[in-house]
Amino acid sequence: MIYAVRIYTVDVARVPVFVAAFQRGGLWTDIARLQAGHIHTDLLRNPSDSTKFLSIEFWTSIHALLAARRS
Protein backbone atom coordinates (compact mmCIF):
# COMPACT_ATOMS: atom_id res chain seq x y z
CA MET A 1 0.00 0.00 0.00
CA ILE A 2 1.17 3.51 -0.84
CA TYR A 3 0.26 6.66 1.08
CA ALA A 4 0.21 10.10 -0.55
CA VAL A 5 0.06 13.13 1.71
CA ARG A 6 -1.01 16.57 0.54
CA ILE A 7 -1.19 19.84 2.43
CA TYR A 8 -3.78 22.46 1.49
CA THR A 9 -4.35 26.06 2.53
CA VAL A 10 -7.84 27.11 1.49
CA ASP A 11 -9.34 30.58 1.23
CA VAL A 12 -11.68 30.97 4.20
CA ALA A 13 -14.68 31.64 1.96
CA ARG A 14 -14.04 28.40 0.00
CA VAL A 15 -13.61 26.07 3.00
CA PRO A 16 -17.19 24.71 2.92
CA VAL A 17 -16.91 23.84 -0.79
CA PHE A 18 -13.48 22.28 -0.27
CA VAL A 19 -14.69 20.11 2.61
CA ALA A 20 -17.80 19.09 0.66
CA ALA A 21 -15.60 17.83 -2.19
CA PHE A 22 -14.10 15.22 0.13
CA GLN A 23 -17.41 14.00 1.57
CA ARG A 24 -19.54 11.19 0.14
CA GLY A 25 -20.88 12.33 -3.22
CA GLY A 26 -18.38 15.19 -3.40
CA LEU A 27 -16.28 16.03 -6.44
CA TRP A 28 -12.99 14.61 -5.11
CA THR A 29 -14.72 11.46 -3.88
CA ASP A 30 -16.40 10.89 -7.24
CA ILE A 31 -13.19 11.46 -9.20
CA ALA A 32 -11.07 9.31 -6.88
CA ARG A 33 -13.58 6.45 -7.06
CA LEU A 34 -12.93 6.24 -10.82
CA GLN A 35 -9.15 5.95 -10.39
CA ALA A 36 -7.84 2.39 -10.53
CA GLY A 37 -5.98 1.57 -7.35
CA HIS A 38 -7.43 4.31 -5.16
CA ILE A 39 -8.53 2.84 -1.84
CA HIS A 40 -9.53 5.77 0.34
CA THR A 41 -8.74 9.39 1.21
CA ASP A 42 -8.85 10.90 4.69
CA LEU A 43 -9.12 14.68 5.06
CA LEU A 44 -7.84 16.13 8.32
CA ARG A 45 -8.39 19.74 9.41
CA ASN A 46 -5.87 21.71 11.46
CA PRO A 47 -7.58 22.38 14.80
CA SER A 48 -5.72 25.66 15.27
CA ASP A 49 -6.25 27.00 11.71
CA SER A 50 -9.51 26.09 9.98
CA THR A 51 -8.10 26.96 6.54
CA LYS A 52 -5.33 24.33 6.64
CA PHE A 53 -5.91 20.70 5.73
CA LEU A 54 -3.95 17.52 5.26
CA SER A 55 -5.16 14.69 3.06
CA ILE A 56 -3.87 11.14 3.23
CA GLU A 57 -4.59 9.06 0.15
CA PHE A 58 -4.33 5.29 0.21
CA TRP A 59 -3.35 3.56 -3.04
CA THR A 60 -2.71 -0.04 -4.00
CA SER A 61 0.62 0.78 -5.64
CA ILE A 62 2.93 3.58 -6.71
CA HIS A 63 1.99 2.78 -10.32
CA ALA A 64 -1.70 3.40 -9.58
CA LEU A 65 -0.89 6.71 -7.86
CA LEU A 66 1.32 7.91 -10.71
CA ALA A 67 -1.25 6.89 -13.33
CA ALA A 68 -3.93 8.85 -11.47
CA ARG A 69 -1.71 11.92 -11.27
CA ARG A 70 -1.09 11.74 -15.02
CA SER A 71 -4.79 11.43 -15.85
Give a description of the structure.
This protein is α+β, with helices and mostly antiparallel strands and 71 residues long. Helix content is 32%, strand content 34%. The protein contains three helices and three strands. It has helices at residues 15-21, 27-33, 62-70; strands at 2-9, 38-45, 52-59. Strands 1-3-2 form a three-stranded antiparallel β-sheet. The longest helix has 9 residues, at 62-70. The mean pLDDT is 95.
How would you sum up this structure in a few lines?
By secondary structure, this protein is α+β, with helices and mostly antiparallel strands. 32% of the residues lie in helices and 34% in strands.
The helix tally amounts to 3
Helix content: 25-40%
Order of helices and strands: EHHEEH
What's the pLDDT, averaged over the residues?
95
Find the structural class using helix and strand composition: alpha+beta
The shape is globular
Report the end-to-end length measured between terminal Cα atoms.
20 Å
Which spans have pLDDT < 50 for at least 5 consecutive residues?
none
Measured by DSSP, the beta-strand proportion falls in: 25-35%
What's the helix and strand layout?
Layout: E1 2-9, H1 15-21, H2 27-33, E2 38-45, E3 52-59, H3 62-70
Antiparallel strand pairs: 1-3, 2-3
Describe this protein with a few key phrases.
alpha+beta, 71 residues, 3-stranded antiparallel β-sheet, 32% helix, single chain
